[in-house]
User: Fold this.
Amino acid sequence: MKLYKKPLLELVFEAATIHRQFHNPREVQMSSLLSIKTGGCPEDCGYCPQAARYHTDIETHKIMDVDEVLDQAKNAKANGSSRLCMGAAWREVRDNKDFDKVVEMVQGVNDMDMEVCCTLGMLTEGQAKRLKNAGLFAYNHNLDSSKEFYKDVISTREYEQRLGTIENARKAGISVCSGGIIGMGESEEDRIGLLMSYMEMETPPESIPINALVAVEGTPLEDQKPIEQWELIRMVATTRIAFPESVVRLSAGRTKMNMEAQALCFMAGAGSIFAGDKLLTTPNPEFNEDQEMFSILGLLPKESFADAPQPESKPDEINIEKKRRETKRLKELEDAKSSDTIHKFEPRTIKSVDTL
Ligand code: SF4
Assistant:
């Protein structure tokens, strides 16, 4: 809290100094966020327009096709993104066909040499291992706020369950992306409480996204006043000093910031932004605006796998078996159609009681 409350320019200077010791200050990663399954979520996160219980005007859709996702990943890469984050509005991952698809997506995007991150809700260790095997680079699961304030925003799952999912990703050897949202009505103590939760972890997240609430009409937080840009800069700088090795990601809420405020965030240690005009379902600056900002500020898009080696995509046993069965079934149907065997009907003879 002492750090957080420092005079702003002192804080930014200290953060910038630390940033330079651990990172290349000219490099900022461009990441893309793709909603692979939108809306209809059973959870009640007060900030989220994808919760089924709130009446928002987002367009819901079922899980996207693998090829469609791979096309979008290709476009994102061509536009300079080195990381793709795929989000599905689920409470938790289920071992079903949709998850099999996600595994294929992860494999496909990793094969394009992009860092793949997923945010799919709660996850078991077994599911995390399957994703890791497919080539998942990072798993995102935000703690959102302090343990104390969390229950004012979400009631359908516990803070401990979130910590459990993060632990499962860790155990599977996946890099962790976890951060929070400011501007939900929390106190400054809650902001520090969020950072303290990461401090208490044996290994803090490798990636910490800091979001400013985008208040969406129809959600319980629709009337929240937007935070001041200074608050976001202060939060980025404090996070940078507290976790010098992590990548601090300037995430949702950039549309409300001018370039000068964003520049101060980069100065204070933000090492990533999300590119593209949409962040899951909320607006984000246009791609061209970001390119212009990079050129004015002399920033360079960071290459993929600059912080850790690329995971290997290994064959997925479940999907291989599924494909084998599908092929076998299709062949059986084809054979049945082309077969000219006429099945003769031969009535069964009933043996007389005497012969029994
Ligand atoms: S934040 Fe995620 S879990 Fe919460 S309601 Fe939205 S989609 Fe569901």
Summary: Residues 41, 43, 45, 48, 50-51, 89, 121 surround iron/sulfur cluster (CB under 6 Å). The longest strand covers residues 27-37. The first helix runs from residue 8 to 22. DSSP finds eleven helices and twelve strands in the chain.
